[in-house]
Amino acid sequence: MKPTVHDIAKIAGVSLATVDRVLNGRPGVRSVTRGKVEDAIISLGYVRDLAAANLAKSRTYSFVFILPANDNSFMIGLTEEVRGAVARSSSERTDIRIVDVPPFDPGALVASLEAVLAEKPAGVAFVAIDAPEVRAAARRLSEAGIPTVTLVSDLPESSRDHYAGIDNIAAGRTAGSLMGRFLSGPLMDERGATVAVLAGSMLVRDHRERLEGFSTVIAHAYPNVHILPVLEGRDDPALSETMVAEALRRNADIAGIYSLGAGNRGLIRALQTAHGPRRPLVIAHELTASTRAALSNGVIDAVLNQDAGHEVRSAIRVLKAKADGLPVLAAQERIRIDIFLKDNLP
Amino acid sequence: MKPTVHDIAKIAGVSLATVDRVLNGRPGVRSVTRGKVEDAIISLGYVRDLAAANLAKSRTYSFVFILPANDNSFMIGLTEEVRGAVARSSSERTDIRIVDVPPFDPGALVASLEAVLAEKPAGVAFVAIDAPEVRAAARRLSEAGIPTVTLVSDLPESSRDHYAGIDNIAAGRTAGSLMGRFLSGPLMDERGATVAVLAGSMLVRDHRERLEGFSTVIAHAYPNVHILPVLEGRDDPALSETMVAEALRRNADIAGIYSLGAGNRGLIRALQTAHGPRRPLVIAHELTASTRAALSNGVIDAVLNQDAGHEVRSAIRVLKAKADGLPVLAAQERIRIDIFLKDNLP
DNA sequence: CAAATTTTGATTTACGTACCTCAGAATTTC
DNA sequence: GAAATTCTGAGGTACGTAAATCAAAATTTG
């Protein structure tokens, strides 16, 4: 039988009330008595029954998810996943609220974080923007004892408790390695090969990190692959399309394209209308309806993906664990970089 | 406020006892009364509080994991993951027991399943062997109302409730696609390229399926890649090593090796001692200490992996859900094929 | 040493559900 | 219409913990 508070009281020779005071850190216990109770807890190997405790407290975990009101497929999918979690939340004693913020706007994010801080939720998840004022707001949350998790985009060297997202440098390295290997041979002559990079904005940390990883691997392992200046398409379909089309026109010898942002719809349109000597090798990020279709019909060769559903569920698990002061299973919470070819599409 | 049984009683105009009889399918309720209660349940949107119910029943889920006593790294890791789950199980109202069976022995597996059936656990997970008698034993379990999950290796067209493992045909296709792309160019001349396949045994379903996927992609997309007859190394390090060494000696032009079983330690040793004109391109399965090292230092080029921890946790979640009659979140329970290059090693 | 303060015990109620008993009401059977 | 049977209500206890009250004991303070 699992030991209960009653067993502790019996072994320690104190009353239930005292055990309760020790367990819940309430005042009014001499240190000698506290010691006796703690010894009993250890010797019995007591672990609090969380289900019973939550029932007694009639506790619900109230979490807030702050999400950018972005219109790209990935962010829409992410929001959808959080909605799904909201739908399931009642049966899991969680009460999840979604707060929308304008995208790429540190000030708005800070304002949201402040507003959220005021209502003292049991935990906050947000898509970070890498700015000092955001870091300061995160610090105020953690100083108020509110567990915080960054989602998709991290805020390193801050007081966040956890990051639910992929390692973007590793993602860029992986893209670089695939690009190098796929290009070696058929698409590369003795003069080397030229590769274009399409990003959203170099102001966003994820994009910077992916480019960094990509460039590093290319420079070290595939020195005869040349990377053109980055095209910043602001994750906008129309802008991305014209930029890519323009680049293809100007550089007939583009052998590969790495799309590290969310401008894939435009990229795909540009590729479908272009008619160069040969189709460039394309590696993109995020499996959406359009990238999936492009992968199937050979317009895109590989897609690196982060599973938004996993990220959301992981964020919730971590927030819950932190709220309960429980340890986090690191292996379970590591968000993986999925590599999809047309052959392993789910 | 979430509705409770008390609210149902009030709305339906019956007593708590009657509500309880309806909710738990106990006899002694006229169909008219039952209807009133059911209407109230629906109109209130009542959902039973599982935590409270389990507390009242002082219920623990008793699950049994039947695992082959195999000595390869993957199975050892899998067992380790189940052990970890056992360690955590007390705090999750689960009581998991591990049963060892001799590997590759359908009779022994059936005997274990029978023995387990006798003790009526709340759920069973087992690594299936594709044999009619195993299928029959699984049927008896499900007829007894015991949820069953196959782990790592499936038993298709059986009465199992769920399969916690990867799609091995897709894994083989992915390996084929990577092999074809990586080979095209530097390692392939106009005469094409030769590829060797190292398997454990063609009697095991996973291995057959991986080979099937691999061969299909190669035949369709890379017709000038030739696959040598499969080497069956029985997942034994020594045997695998001699078979690979022998093959390399006989076929100096082997450009690629696909290791789809668990004979990687032997394979790596053979590769390290061989000194052909150029290193073959190697794709293997399962990220273990040895494949990880080989990936880092370039002996292996890509590793396809299934995360044993995820499989075990998924199996437990599914068994729990089935035991409670709850739906399963398919997206969460899909086990993915991880592709590791040296650049995205975790 | 008395008064004030702190510490502890005993007891109770509550959370939402399960399960049991027993009495009384309603219905069916003869 | 009486007897047998089936249904229903009222009430209780339990699961393991939280949280509160109030009295009694121990300790510290003046």
DSSP strand content of chain A: 15-25%
- Say which CATH homologous superfamily of the largest domain in chain A is assigned: Response regulator
Total number of beta strands of chain A: 12
Q: What's the number of domains of chain A?
A: 3
The N- to C-terminal Cα distance of chain A equals: 44 Å
Task: Let me know the largest β-sheet of chain A.
Answer: 7 strands, mixed
Mean pLDDT of chain A, rounded to whole units? 91
Q: Which CATH class of the largest domain in chain A?
A: Alpha Beta
Describe the structure.
- Two copies of one chain form a homodimer.
- With 346 residues, chain A is of the alpha/beta class.
- Chain A folds into three domains: 5-48, 434 Repressor (Amino-terminal Domain) (Orthogonal Bundle); 57-165 and 308-334, 3-Layer(aba) Sandwich (Rossmann fold), CATH 3.40.50; 168-305, Rossmann fold (3-Layer(aba) Sandwich).
- Chain A is built from 14 helices and twelve strands.
- Chain A has helices at 5-12, 16-23, 31-44, 50-57, 73-89, 106-118, 132-143, 168-183, 205-221, 237-250, 264-273, 289-296, 308-323, 330-333, and strands at residues 61-68, 94-101, 123-126, 148-151, 162-164, 193-199, 225-227, 231-232, 254-259, 281-285, 302-305, 338-340.
- In chain A, strands 6, 7, 8, 9, 10, 11 and 12 form a seven-stranded mixed beta sheet that branches.
- In chain A, helix 1 (5-12) crosses helix 2, helix 6 packs parallel to helix 7 (132-143) and helix 10 (237-250) packs across helix 11.
- The longest helix of chain A has 17 residues, at 73-89.
- Chain A is elongated.
- The two termini of chain A are 44 Å apart.
- In chain A, 47% of the residues are buried.
- The mean pLDDT of chain A is 91.
- The interface between A and B is large, with 42 and 41 residues.
